[in-house]
């Protein structure tokens, strides 16, 4: 077996079909235990979860190969050392150290992998470990001194603990939100004057004013995203722009929920469908039903096709930099131990969802609602109210000036919708 394990996606596949295999590199020998486990995950988990687990196990096996560890006899001490190695690792994608959350998820994946391995007979059981420790034969000396505990539920204390803090929540201030939206695209009232596209701004408004996740708008491998069909039969009153209508969206865990959407945003979205989007898909014989597509000015191979969440993240970061919403960070240069200072976007698209939650909290409090968390929970699609409160309470408790800014700048001004 080689010194590295790599993940190979077989093809586009249905949720119930295995699509990720693990091979040693460069021999390209299939790793049967790991691939079989990923295949079992396909029965009940999303493709994204399968992919994340596949990469976590690939990292683990690569670590074992490099350290000369027989993965079938790996123990808690080895898992602990793996966690230490991850804490010193740098992400190839960002050049920054791995977060505690990433480290924890990878270690949790390894534990689940070994629990399954014990059930299917390729990993030593706790009784095997106990027997080896009780044996006095010289052949087991190394095993006794280094393999004191199997990898199972009992070693979860080795996983680094991480808790959300107010630093994890980065909602935009009212002024920053207005600036970002202007750099993403013109308001509907200005679009005809300058000829610029509204699409990127509309996506941001669905996150900032409705609280949707990016995947719930543009879609991904587990989610259709918003569809044009949802708006073709949607009835709303254009004369009452600040009333709300109900739109049904597909959220995390393949669960649907109803969300309240301001009528002005529905009107803006329908106008996008009738003009900008219609022009983009005009040449396609069987156009996609997804709402968000590439502009008419895109290349022939992408024009009118659905855009990806990753591509929108790129456009969003560019708008942040243009709006001077930046942070200076030190990152590791590629293939080097040296660091360099770079300007990074201070916000991600998900921060707009946080912005919605915080903005709604202060608006509900201003209206006298003593339980503002409940409507926020329903709109965001959190299963438990506790999740909503724990995510945002520490932030809103110390950011009362955010509420004052919101009262000073009305939602109409934030959205750029005329008062008349």
TrEMBL record:
Keywords: DNA integration, DNA recombination. Gene3D superfamilies: Intergrase catalytic core (1.10.443.10). It comes from the Bacteria. Pfam families: Phage_integrase. InterPro entries: DNA_brk_join_enz, Integrase-like_cat_sf, Integrase_catalytic, Tyrosine_recombinase_XerCD. Residues 167-408 form the Tyr recombinase domain. PANTHER family: PHAGE INTEGRASE-RELATED, PROPHAGE INTEGRASE INTD-RELATED. This is Site-specific integrase. It comes from Dyella acidiphila.
């Amino acid at each position: 077996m080689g010194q590295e394990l790599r993940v190979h996606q077989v093809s586009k596949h249905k949720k119930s079909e295995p699509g990720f295999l693990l091979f040693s590199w460069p021999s390209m020998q299939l790793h049967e235990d790991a691939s079989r486990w990923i295949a079992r995950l396909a029965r009940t988990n999303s493709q994204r979860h399968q992919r994340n687990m596949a990469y976590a196990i690939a990292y683990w096996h690569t670590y074992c190969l490099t350290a000369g560890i027989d993965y079938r006899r790996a123990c808690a001490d080895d898992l602990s050392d793996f966690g230490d190695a991850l804490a010193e690792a740098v992400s190839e994608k960002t050049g920054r150290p791995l977060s505690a959350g990433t480290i924890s998820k990878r270690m949790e994946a390894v534990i689940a992998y070994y629990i399954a391995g014990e059930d299917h007979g390729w990993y030593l059981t706790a009784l095997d470990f106990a027997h080896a420790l009780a044996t006095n034969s010289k052949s087991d000396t190394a095993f006794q001194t280094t393999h004191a505990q199997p990898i199972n539920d009992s070693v979860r204390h080795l996983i680094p603990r991480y808790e959300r803090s107010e630093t994890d929540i980065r909602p935009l201030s009212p002024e920053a939100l207005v600036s970002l939206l202007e750099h993403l695209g013109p308001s509907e009232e200005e679009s005809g004057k300058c000829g610029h596209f509204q699409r990127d701004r509309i996506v941001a408004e669905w996150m900032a004013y409705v609280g949707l996740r990016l995947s719930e708008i543009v879609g991904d491998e587990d989610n259709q995203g918003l569809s044009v069909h949802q708006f073709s039969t949607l009835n709303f009153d254009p004369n009452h722009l600040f009333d709300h209508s109900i739109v049904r969206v597909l959220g995390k865990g393949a669960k649907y929920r109803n969300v309240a959407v301001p009528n002005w945003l529905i009107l803006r979205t329908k106008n996008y469908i009738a003009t900008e989007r219609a022009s983009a898909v005009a040449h396609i014989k069987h156009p996609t039903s997804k709402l968000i597509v590439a502009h008419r000015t895109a290349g022939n191979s992408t024009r009118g096709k659905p855009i990806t969440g990753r591509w929108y993240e790129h456009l969003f970061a560019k708008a942040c930099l243009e709006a001077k919403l930046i942070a200076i960070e030190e990152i590791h240069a590629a293939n080097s131990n040296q660091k360099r200072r770079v300007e990074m976007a201070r916000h991600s698209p998900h921060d707009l969802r946080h912005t919605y939650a915080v903005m709604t909290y202060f608006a509900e409090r201003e209206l006298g609602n003593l339980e503002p968390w409940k409507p926020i929970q329903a709109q965001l699609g959190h299963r438990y109210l506790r999740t909503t409160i724990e995510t945002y309470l520490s932030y809103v408790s110390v950011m009362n000036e955010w509420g004052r800014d919101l009262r000073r700048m009305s939602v109409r001004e934030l959205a750029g919708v005329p008062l008349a």
